[in-house]
Design brief:
By secondary structure, this protein is of the alpha/beta class. The protein has one domain: 3-Layer(aba) Sandwich (Rossmann fold). Helices cover 45% and strands 20% of the residues. The strands form 2 sheets. A 5-stranded parallel β-sheet has the order 2-7-1-8-9, with helices on both faces. The protein has a 4-stranded mixed β-sheet with strand order 4-3-6-5. The longest helix has 15 residues. The two termini are 17 Å apart.
Length: 198
Amino acid sequence: MKGRTFIITGPSGVGKGTIIQELFARQPHLYFSVSATTRGPRPGEENGVHYHFISREQFDQWVREDAFLEHAEYVGNCYGTPKKFVDEAMDRGEDAILDIEVQGAQQVHQKRPDAVRIFIAPPSWTELEHRLTGRGTESAEKVRSRLARAKEEFRFAADYDYIVINNTVEEAAEEIRAIIRAEHCRPAQRMPQLMETL
């Protein structure tokens, strides 16, 4: 059975990365989409694991060839989700998990309306503030900037297929597992199997 594409989006500090780690620990047959970027690798980063590190010329060529599901430029560097690796994973029967921003999710949805969009939300606005300030790694100004951006991102949540509230990482991961199971029970997924038995 062919895999599906699941887009996971949410504001900074909501815990997407931790939830995705928990999801992969619980759910087999998943593929985490590794983005391509024109920035150089940082110490400890591996090509093909953390990012696909490519030149600006290669990136521009992939854009011309429509080889990205989504792409954007940020602080002078380009980032994008290559179609090829996602498609190969789905052909293997793996569900592809894309951890991308709201704008990227919109681009993917335009190209692939069947991609399932999941918005991760905090249990409350106060809790999101607490999580961001609790990191202790950013200035108050940076935290305010992240909160302002989060408010913008929340405006798009109602357009998503699902909203998962991160009360606890375990609950959130389990809800995403339930969403994945439910999506594979849709007629478009199950009918080919049924027709083979007739």
